[in-house]
Predict the structure.
Amino acid sequence: MKRFKLTKEEKALEAALERGEYRPVSAKDEQLIAAAIARRKKDAVLNIRVNSEDLSQIKVKAHRLGVPYQTFISEVLHRVAA
């Protein structure tokens, strides 16, 4: 049998699984989760021009949140569109 070297994160997940911290979800919940993931799929490209000062402020806010600024912009647009 081939042995795989797990990362720290993978080892933590494996340990949590062995401790029974995860449980199966119902078919209905699984469908809801799959639908939520599908809604978050980014399948369109958008090119816009923005004020450089606005972009600088967006980058500062994204940095404070610890996310890339394009991800932050995408999340803001998603919240406004919803």
Observations:
- The longest helix spans residues 52-65.
- Helices lie at 8-18, 27-39, 52-65, 69-81.
- The mean pLDDT is 91.
- The CA atoms of residues 49 and 64 lie 23 Å apart.
